[in-house]
């Protein structure tokens, strides 16, 4: 509790006023923080005994930005602009003392200070673009005045912060302070400024360097693909352009207009929702607060195939040793070889140091000896997707691995409870469903069985953060959350081919919607022959026929598409004819199918399946489902996930359209009970479950 208000303290010592903010968890610029800053600076400026002012924060970080939870609500408290004007206009030096993260509005406040001192571990950035916004408190006008237009463009459109040392090189930081002596260093710096009578450095008075029309044209061209579909990057670019071409005050006005435009749009609403949804997903309802976490120091992985290798890399990269067990020497060698190749590729791209490659590989113990798993704290099984094999493996794990260890399965579809029943310790069994490629995709579905112990769940959720994953809890059902919802989309995509569309029509509609690829491009990438066998294939489905022609996807340079040397997908006349023949054989009269129908038929049943997942309690919240889709299937974040998107379309509309398709297409389209209830009551899928 401070002496200015509940979150602000002001102390004057030896002529230096120290304003301390203490508003956990991240000192966001809430009304109380703005009021506190305003009052503290007014007092310090008025105090004739004060010769300089230091702004510092208590707790884990400097100001981490505007308070996002206040967005969209009526504004109370002092305006941030008034506070910033008071600070920048102070007739005595103002020094920001930065630790943790100075992000968004936090950096924008620091940029209205005359000087900035930071500890080496501090990070400075303008991440608003990740919330579908732009820095709306002068950041787009002040940042390029320090770092130049090119660097500012990169920082505001990527949202990636820079470290304090880089900040020092680019002029964002004036001096580095010792990690454990920030306050003393900032006060000493302030005294030095006063003693040397250094001028008050106002960023607004500087010129923007390098803001040529060519720079902006080239930047737009180079990033067009990356920014596709998003509104915020272009608005950020326009602001930097304004900084380069307009007087400061006019630039601020332009920034304000563009900020308000984004703030009132659906994209930013979606991206802000996702920010909170992601943090919410980590919270498990009814978990005892004092659940003691199990210690995970050594991990075992069973199976060195596609998934086992990727899963292993997550732990090696996080510094956790892994024992990987295979049944066949060649499979083991191949798996380990791929892990090394992946690391070396990262090193070649400069993403990791060559020493780090060796350090990661040094943590890996490859073996054919099942007994080597005995002392692991967690074993993740990633063998073939076959219940009998999985049961056998779990019975053996039960007999081999030490008591108290967590036994996890990476199964995509199988019943985790049935697998757990193969052991005498089902409470230690959990699903850890990684997504391919497992070293890249951020999603981890944590599948909770009826007997899974709370501390097992809590340990796995915590561990997921350590390995850089976003974990979402799912209940036991076929395909859990993500694959279960994918299945009606795949079904409709297939039906659409028979009824009149071509693979490239369906894929185009879904990529225009914002998915990185459509269902047929995805199948070609994964390989059409997964689960297909030449021995039993009877040419009953399009997939059978493609595989029989050795069109097995990208790996054979032909699948639903033809592929050239650069792996570019080209619509295939062979496939077109095959589809027409297939429809004729089935007696289907093909008809023109609109883009609207493709979108509705692929996505409304997917939303409906999500509602069923919620209705059956297989996900805790609608927002958890959105996190699954954004991180596991690359659903466009600016559409907020299928539940949020369903809400924006309108649940009444979705129910109506599902019923329309039900009339002709049957009960596959029958809207779920929950969907109908929410549509009638005006409820929301994204808000379901809290
Ligand atoms: N507003 C409100 N709450 C915030 C917040 C913010 N800006 N930033 C974080 N929080 C909350 C989180 O929701 C979380 O709450 P919970 O504990 O109830 O779930 C809590 O603070 C801790 O956050 P994290 O779990 O993310 O903690 P970490 O230590 O992992 O990360 C962080 C800290 C790097 C600061 C991270 O929270 C973050 O990136 N925050 C967002 C920063 C940001 O986007 N700032 C820009 C805001 S927009 C803006 O400033 C507009 C301006 O230009 C006008
Ligand atoms: P894969 O066929 O690439 O690898 C399986 C590996 O397990 C093989 O190398 C095999 O030799 C080994 N193996 C088989 N029995 C074993 C045993 N008893 N002990 C040790 N090793 C054994 O299969 P993939 O794709 O890695 O799948 C593994 C599991 O992960 C499956 O359950 C699958 O459903 C699941 N999964 C797969 C995804 C994918 O995209 N491939 C995505 C998510 C989950």
Characterization of the model:
The chain is α/β, with parallel strands linked by helices and 690 residues long. It contains 27 helices and 19 strands. It has an 8-stranded mixed sheet with strand order 12-11-10-13-14-15-16-17, sandwiched between helices. The chain has a 6-stranded mixed sheet with strand order 1-2-3-4-6-9, sandwiched between helices. It has a 3-stranded mixed sheet with strand order 5-7-8. Helix 2 (80-88) links the parallel strand 3 (52-57) and strand 4 (94-98). Helix 4 (139-147) crosses helix 9, helix 11 (266-281) crosses helix 24 (622-632) and helix 23 (595-615) packs across helix 26 (651-665). The protein is globular, with a radius of gyration of 28 Å. The model has no long low-confidence stretch (mean pLDDT 97). 1,4-dihydronicotinamide adenine dinucleotide is lined by residues 302-308, 325-328, 331, 382-385, 389, 393, 410-412, 434, 436.
């Amino acid at each position: 509790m401070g002496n200015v208000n509940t979150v602000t303290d002001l102390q004057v010592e030896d002529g230096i006023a120290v304003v301390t903010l203490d508003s956990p968890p991240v000192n966001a610029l809430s009304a109380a923080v703005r009021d506190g800053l305003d009052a503290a600076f007014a007092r310090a400026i008025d105090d004739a005994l004060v010769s300089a002012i230091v702004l510092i924060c208590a707790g884990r970080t400097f100001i981490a930005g505007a308070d996002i939870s206040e967005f969209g609500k009526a504004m109370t408290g002092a305006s941030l602009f008034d506070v910033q004007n008071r600070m920048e206009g102070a007739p005595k030096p103002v020094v920001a003392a930065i630790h943790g993260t100075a992000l968004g509005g936090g950096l924008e406040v620091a940029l209205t200070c005359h000087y900035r001192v930071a500890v080496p571990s501090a990070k400075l950035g303008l991440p608003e673009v990740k919330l579908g916004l732009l820095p709306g408190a002068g950041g787009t006008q002040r940042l390029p005045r320090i770092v130049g237009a090119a660097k500012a463009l990169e920082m505001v459109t990527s949202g990636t912060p820079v470290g304090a040392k880089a900040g020092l090189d680019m002029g964002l930081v004036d001096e580095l302070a010792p990690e454990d002596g920030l306050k003393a260093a900032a006060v000493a710096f302030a005294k030095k400024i006063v003693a040397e009578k250094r001028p008050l450095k106002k960023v607004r008075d500087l010129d923007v360097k390098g803001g040529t029309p060519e720079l902006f044209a080239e930047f737009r061209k180079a990033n067009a693909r990356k920014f596709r579909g998003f509104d915020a990057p272009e608005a950020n670019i326009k602001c930097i352009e304004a900084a380069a071409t307009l007087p400061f005050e006019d630039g601020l006005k332009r920034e304000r207009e563009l900020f308000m435009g984004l703030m009132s749009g659906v994209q930013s609403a979606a991206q802000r929702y996702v920010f909170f949804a992601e943090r919410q997903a980590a919270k498990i309802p009814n978990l005892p607060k004092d659940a003691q976490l199990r210690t995970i120091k050594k991990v075992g992985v069973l199976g060195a195939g596609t998934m086992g290798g990727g899963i292993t890399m997550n732990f090696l990269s996080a510094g956790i040793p892994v024992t990987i067990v295979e049944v066949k020497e060649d499979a083991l060698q191949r798996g380990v070889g791929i892990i090394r190749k992946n690391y070396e590729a990262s090193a070649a791209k400069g993403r990791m140091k060559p020493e780090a490659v060796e350090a990661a590989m040094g943590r890996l113990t490859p073996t054919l000896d099942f007994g080597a798993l005995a002392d692991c704290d967690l074993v993740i099984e990633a063998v073939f997707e076959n219940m009998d094999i999985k049961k056998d493996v779990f019975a053996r794990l039960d007999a081999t691995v030490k008591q108290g260890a967590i036994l996890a399965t990476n199964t995509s579809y199988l019943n985790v409870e049935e697998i757990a029943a193969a052991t005498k310790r089902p409470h230690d069994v959990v699903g850890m469903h990684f997504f391919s490629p497992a070293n890249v995709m951020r999603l981890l579905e944590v599948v909770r069985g009826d007997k899974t112990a709370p501390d097992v769940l809590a340990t796995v959720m915590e561990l997921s953060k350590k390995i850089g994953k976003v974990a979402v809890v799912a209940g036991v059902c076929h395909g859990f959350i993500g694959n279960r919802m994918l299945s009606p989309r795949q079904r409709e995509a297939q039906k659409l081919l028979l009824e009149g569309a071509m693979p490239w029509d369906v894929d185009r509609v879904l990529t225009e919607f914002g998915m990185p690829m459509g269902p047929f491009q995805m199948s070609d990438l994964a390989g059409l022959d997964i689960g297909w066998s030449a021995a039993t294939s009877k040419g009953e489905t399009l997939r059978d026929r493609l595989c029989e022609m050795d069109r097995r996807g990208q790996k054979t340079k032909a699948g639903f598409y033809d592929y050239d040397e650069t792996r570019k997908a080209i619509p295939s006349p062979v496939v077109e004819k095959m589809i027409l023949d297939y429809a004729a054989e089935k007696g289907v009269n093909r008809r023109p199918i609109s883009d609207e129908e493709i979108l509705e038929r692929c996505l409304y049943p997917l939303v409906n399946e999500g509602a069923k997942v919620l209705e059956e309690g297989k996900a805790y919240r609608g927002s958890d489902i959105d996190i699954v889709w954004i991180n596991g299937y690359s659903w466009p974040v600016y559409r907020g996930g299928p539940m949020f998107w369903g809400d924006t379309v309108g649940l009444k509309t979705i129910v109506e359209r599902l019923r329309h398709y039900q009339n002709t297409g049957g009960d596959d389209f029958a809207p779920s009970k929950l969907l109908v209830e929410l549509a009638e009551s005006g409820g929301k899928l994204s808000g379901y479950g809290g």
